[in-house]
Specification:
By secondary structure, this protein is an alpha+beta fold. Helices cover 28% and strands 27% of the residues. The chain folds into two domains: 117 residues; 192 residues, Umud Fragment, subunit A. The chain is built from six helices and 15 strands.
Length: 329
Amino acid sequence: MNVAPDDKARRPWVAALLGGVVPGLGHLYVGRPWLAILFAVATPSPLFIAIILGAYHPRALFRLILIGVALHIAIWIVTVASAVVLARRKRASYQLTRYNHVALYMGFALATWVASNALAEYVRGSILEPFRIPSGSMVPTLIPGDQVLATKVGAGEGRQRGDVVVFTNPFRPEVEIIQRIIGLPGDRIRIENARIYLNGVEQPKRLIDPLYVVHLGFGNEIETEAGQLLEETLGARPYPILERASACGRPQNPVCTFDGGREFVVPPGQVFMMGDNRGKSADSRFGFGVQGKSLEFVPLTNIKGRAAVIWLSFSLLDGIRWNRIGQTL
């Protein structure tokens, strides 16, 4: 069926509406199919390119995505404006073409939707995936309600000590965990008096705030996490951790001195993980929370991606935490 058979003139508001809903559809309405395809492809391209570049340059990921979003919106506006201009030129008279059929409009919109969803699934599965932080095991680096973007390019390859990564629990594959890599394959590690010794070398640690308090905001209740805020440096990479002042009140407390201070070696193809909230993290020291497990490691193949940036932070009590958005990890 032809669209508007009794009035062949193109209406600018219809072109604007169609182009605003589906990039390029307004151009199909005014009989410019090649422009329709061009704008349908060009509109999402900056965001897709920004995501790919950011996956390989995690430190710049958030900035690149912001640029990609801005260009995406700008091109979409140009798309709508272009369709309106062409429609105005054909306001007085327009000869319907084979492209002016409702079925073709619907087919174009459907094809665009399918292609967009396929692209989004590819990005989520192979390049970049969002994760939500549900617990306080990574306080102060991450708090409940933070949402991070994890780069999945070479997820288990080239990992470094200090990387914050998302991985599947070795004993519960349906559970995803986010923690920090402390030891790489072959590393010798021991933990004594709440200090990490890596390959025989004590890793430096300094006190930042002896009375640190953070509001977690679980659900509708106010919960806080308090302790000493310290900066630990692994190799040349500093990051914050949270410890209880009383952790070493009992020297044999595993949070203070793990396994009696004995040294262990990280097996080939695996890594040793710890949460930054040292007193409340079910990590490699405690079998990832599985009853009956103690010292356990994570196969590199279990790593799903490296957490790169906080893209959103929200709680019911605080609303959006604007000061956390954009923090790199």
